[in-house]
Design a protein that fits this description.
Helix content of chain A: 40-55%
CATH topology of the largest domain in chain B: Alkaline Phosphatase, subunit A
Number of domains of chain B: 2
Oligomer: heterodimer
Number of strands of chain A: 8
Distance between the termini of chain A: 47 Å
Number of helices of chain A: 26
Strand order of the largest sheet of chain A: 1-2
Strand content of chain B: 5-15%
CATH architecture of the largest domain in chain B: 3-Layer(aba) Sandwich
Strand content of chain A: under 5%
CATH class of the largest domain in chain B: Alpha Beta
Radius of gyration of chain B: 23 Å
Distance between the termini of chain B: 47 Å
Number of strands of chain B: 12
Chain lengths: 557, 457
């Protein structure tokens, strides 16, 4: 039922499909999603200007660890020659590197292994790092997953590209494109949702109606602009009622696949869903905040009222702002930080609400983001397992001999894979706190939801394997697996302090405490510089693993 | 397993299959089984009890697990459930106690056999409640659980029984806080999760041990032993994080230290474990329950007298394609529970081990086309030799849409609180009345703390 044949014209059909679906829906916004660059062409990296440094290396590393898939030497060098704002502006102007286009160049665009390889390749080597990083963050809010859903691999790539293309667009467009995408339609059952029918004894499906409010836009309780819950008689105030869910479910009836002739047929996952009015509930409805949806409205017109109502709800700024801050910067932003991001969401400075460029800039350049623990004692977050791997490979040019990044089953080794969460609640929830001191202080640490004895063992061991057994020059290493290049480390390994300082810079932004460095250097010094593994190799690998496995690195500050 | 980073799919499947299904055979081939079997069986006068929480993630449609089959109530069921209803030829009869009869679906022969053997009880219309609630108080909005019908909130509330506070710990964890001393100085926590992090097993001072269904591995980094310079450096660096790191660094260091500390103990113990001689189904739930069985089989190695296990079966959020998805889930659930309890019988500790289900919430009786939506009251299953099985407990609700028990579209208002359900299990486990009041802070709001489904003799 799901197939994309003929990779040659797949991209073209996709563009045509998006265009057609816009016409069908009749509610397309006047924003063009980013154009994809040709995946066969070598990626175009911006030229680094030949000027004196304006940003220190340590600042650059720390910033790139928030804004990209991990700092690498090329990016660090580039960023030191400009201001953070100039780097963001450069990134915002870049074309998108789209995943389906790359997937279509593989032998089988419907093979999950290829989707994983393409994801890692884009994360590690795409020049549009900020866009890719934000898209990944959005994929952990607007969750679609291949776990238990039966969604085809190429359909997931299409969905991921919705996020890639719209990352720097308007939040309202993201919301609409996500809602109308067949992958989300299948995952949360807007696809084939139909009006109540007394004879059949059926009524509208509430799945998306609930989760679009709870998880994608406004959340459960009314929020102040700084993200703190509003209170009435000391109680939080619900944002919506069960009746709102039931009526929004009716709004969301009547959508079939974009190429279908009748409601239940169709097979094309590349184009948006399209309305079938016979299956849409045309009775009047009242949704969130007593907003009327008049009778006789067509499915797209009704949907527009629902999405506009959600988009304009005052919760969206603090809701999405907090989530982006948590994914990119820190688990426990201060209310003032959230407030500043909300203001950027509400008005980009030109009177536009929902401009993601303004929101992302506000998240990354906020004084709290830049100040770290100096501006907020609870600053920091646990690095997601996927981000540890991408950082390792970006910092040390990890790739196979043919340039690919074959890493097929990350869920089995590190417990996380893109678009593969256990449920729409993502790999971790924004309000998760592990039992103990973090919880006792009323703080959150979402990524700790992946931390437990079983996961610790396999993550620490996998990292060990990826470093100790997967470097260029390792005897018998499979050249088609991802191998890191440690020559830059070996050069420095003759002088242990140089090696440790370099790794400290590249991975933590020079944040290792002195006593930790002293312990590490003592050990590195005790190892022979020259041995059968090659000059410096043992020292390099040992130092690299011990730093990357230490809580001082794994907690990103 | 984790050494290779570029497995082929075939390798991967081979690996998984070898770990799970082939275990018994490999053990038999190695001649380990007989000795392990002896270790698993009960010693005379042994004081041991285990609770196994089977969490049905996504919201199990319990009213399509236990189906009223007498003519009048079946007709009401059929009307309410529309295209989700089982036809009479899709039902397996349960032994009757009265003129009101019940059935399970043909996908659940395991439930039928456990029930008819007296080892399985159903608890009807249980859910999260702040106080006894009627349709009248529901419509008035009086003292309702916050965020009804939301997955994460209702799951956490059901596992914590603290509905009106920020849920920070679960009743399994509070049981561990209060009864953990029965396990003496055992290094293994009272709680063992085979399914990752959960609020259920977290207490004020108790954190479970988390393991995978496939066993425990050593940490490569410390494999050189305590005196190896690499191990010493790694441990010193962890120690500095514990001592001087920020809050998150300390917590991460704590977790890793605990994992490393327990891994060798577990590996050694599990080498002598057993899954019995019976046939296990191949489902992921069955693999988790096999690990529970293996852990129980070596309980004496750890010197534990009380254990709370946690396993999860996912996929119950059946908004779509419910009939086939739910049948397949219930088939896996019933066969896994039947295999597990027959293994416990084989170990001679059938009366010492009780499994029970929890879920996010029940589901709407009415159909949304080809599935059901989030609801409230649900049916739960309790199994084991100490269960007064072959009976339905609680008050089976009216399934009339818009009737006395219906909040809307067949969202049934629970007549029994999760607190009462948990308290009945906790009392059997050994909790005193004082303990129960701590474990379930709102218990005294409800009519009874003992629903009668456990044999306390």
């Amino acid at each position: 039922m799901i197939s994309i044949n003929g990779r040659q014209f797949a991209v073209k059909t996709l563009r045509l499909g998006l265009l057609l679906s816009g016409l069908f829906a009749g509610i397309a916004q006047a924003v063009t999603p980013a154009e994809c660059f040709d995946p066969l062409a070598a990626p175009i990296y911006p030229t680094t200007p030949d000027v004196p440094s304006v940003t220190t290396q340590a600042v650059a590393v720390r910033f790139l660890n928030m804004a990209t898939f991990g700092a690498g030497p090329r990016d660090v060098n580039h960023l030191t020659k400009m201001t953070l704002q100039a780097w963001i502006d450069e990134q915002l102007a870049m074309k998108a590197s789209c995943h389906l286009a790359s997937l279509n160049e593989t032998q089988d665009n419907n093979q999950r292994e290829n989707r994983m390889e393409v994801w890692f390749r884009h994360a590690v080597s795409a020049p549009d790092q900020l866009r890719q990083r934000v898209a990944f963050a959005l994929s952990e809010v607007f969750v679609v997953s291949d776990v238990g859903s039966g969604i085809a691999t190429n359909a997931l790539a299409v969905y991921y590209d919705v996020l890639v293309r719209n990352s720097f667009g308007n939040f309202r467009d993201i919301l609409e494109q996500v809602t109308l995408s067949p992958a989300m339609g299948h995952y949360l059952s807007v696809l084939h949702n139909q009006k109540a029918d007394r004879k059949l004894g059926i009524r509208a499906d509430e799945n998306y109606a609930r989760e679009v409010m709870q998880l994608f836009t406004i959340g459960l309780v009314q929020l102040d602009t700084d993200g703190t819950p509003l209170l009435q008689a000391n109680s939080t105030i619900p944002t919506y009622s069960q009746t709102d869910v039931e009526n929004s479910a009716r709004v969301l009836t009547g959508w079939g696949l974009g190429d279908s002739v009748s409601f239940f047929d169709g097979s094309d996952w590349r184009i948006n869903m399209k309305p079938f009015e016979n299956y849409h509930d045309h009775n009047p409805k009242t949704i969130l905040n007593n907003t009327p949806v008049p009778g006789q409205g067509k499915a797209p017109a009704d949907l527009k009222i629902l999405l506009d109502t959600l988009f304009n709800h005052p919760n969206v700024g603090p809701f999405i702002g907090r989530r982006l801050i948590q994914r990119l910067v820190t688990s426990n932003p201060s209310p003032a930080y959230i407030q500043r991001v909300t203001e950027a969401f509400n008005d980009n400075g030109s009177g536009v609400r929902g401009d993601m460029k303004a929101v992302i800039t506000a998240v990354l350049l906020d004084p709290e983001a830049l100040g770290g623990t100096k501006s907020n004692a609870n600053f920091g977050k646990l690095r997601e397992p996927l981000l540890v791997l991408t950082h390792l490979w970006r910092a040390l040019d990890g790739k196979a001999v043919d340039g690919l990044l074959r890493y097929y089953y990350p869920e089995s080794t590190i417990g996380q894979a893109a678009l593969s969460a256990g449920s729409v609640f993502n790999f971790f929830r924004p309000d998760f706190a592990p039992s103990g001191a973090i919880n006792d202080k009323g703080l959150f640490a979402p990524e700790f939801q992946l931390i437990n004895d079983a996961n610790n063992t396999r993550f620490y061991n996998e990292l060990f394997s990826l470093i100790q057994w997967h470097y260029k020059g390792k005897p018998y290493a499979d050249p088609f697996s991802v191998l890191i290049n440690i020559s830059n480390l070996n050069k420095r390994a003759k002088v242990p302090v140089d090696l440790v300082n370099y790794l400290d810079l590249m991975f933590t932004g020079s944040k290792l405490p002195d006593d930790v460095k002293t312990v590490l250097m003592g050990y590195i010094r005790s190892l022979d510089y020259k041995n059968s593994a090659g000059n410096g190799v043992t020292r390099s690998l040992e130092a690299l693993y011990l730093i990357m496995s230490s809580p001082h690195y794994l907690i990103q500050r | 397993m984790s050494a290779s980073t570029h497995w082929t799919r075939r390798n991967f499947l081979h690996c998984a299959a070898a770990t799970a299904a082939g275990l018994a055979n490999r053990k038999a081939a190695l001649g380990l089984l007989a000795g392990a079997q002896a270790a698993a069986t009960q010693a005379a006068g042994e004081d041991y009890r285990a609770l196994v929480c089977i969490f049905l993630a996504g919201g199990n449609d319990g009213f399509n697990v236990l189906i009223p089959s007498d003519a009048t109530r079946y007709q009401t069921y059929k009307t309410a459930r529309g295209n989700l209803a089982f036809t009479t030829d899709q039902l397996l009869a349960l032994n009757a106690n009265s003129s009101k009869t019940y059935a399970v679906s043909t996908s659940a022969p395991g439930f039928q056999s456990l029930y008819n053997k007296g080892q399985l009880a159903f608890l009807a219309n249980v859910g999260t409640l702040l106080e006894p609630t009627t349709k009248k108080t529901y419509l008035a909005g009086t003292n309702l659980p916050p965020q009804l019908y939301s997955h994460n909130d209702q799951s956490d509330q059901g596992m914590s029984s603290e509905l009106d506070a920020l849920q920070k710990m679960g009743w399994g964890g509070r049981i561990a806080d209060l009864l953990g001393s029965l396990n003496g100085t055992s290094s293994l926590p009272l709680g063992v999760s085979i399914a990752g992090n959960n609020i259920f097993q977290v207490g004020a001072s108790s954190v479970p041990y988390y393991m995978s269904p496939y066993g425990v591995n050593n940490f490569y980094v410390t494999s050189g032993g305590a005196t190896d310079p690499r191990t010493r450096t790694f441990n010193k660096m962890l120690g500095l994080s514990l001592a001087n790191g920020n809050l998150m660094e300390q917590e991460l260091a704590k977790s890793v230290t605990k994992s490393i500390g327990l891994s060798q103990t577990l590996i050694t113990a599990l080498a002598n474990s057993s899954i019995g001689t019976g046939i296990w189904p191949g489902s992921y739930l069955a693999q988790q329950l096999q690990m529970v069985a293996r852990m129980i089989s070596v309980r004496n190695t750890f010197g534990v007298k009380r254990q709370v296990f946690y396993v999860v079966q996912g996929g119950y959020d059946t908004h779509d394609d419910q009939v086939s998805r739910h049948n397949s889930l219930i088939s896996d659930l019933s066969s896994a529970m039947a295999a597990f309890h027959s293994t416990m019988d084989e170990f001679g500790i059938g009366t010492d081990v009780t499994s029970f289900t929890l879920s996010d919430f029940g589901r709407t009786l009415t159909s949304n086309g080809d599935g059901s939506d989030h609801a409230w009251g649900n049916v739960q299953m309790i199994a084991g030799g100490s269960v007064l099985g072959g009976d339905v407990y609680g008050k089976f609700p009216s399934q009339v849409i818009d009737g006395a028990d219906d909040a809307s579209y067949g969202r049934l208002i629970p007549s029994t609180a999760v607190d009462q359900y948990g308290a009945t299990l906790a009392r059997w486990f050994g909790a005193s009345d004082t303990d129960l009041a701590t474990i379930f802070p709102h218990l005294n709001r409800f009519s009874t703390a003992d629903l009668g489904f456990m044999n306390l003799a």
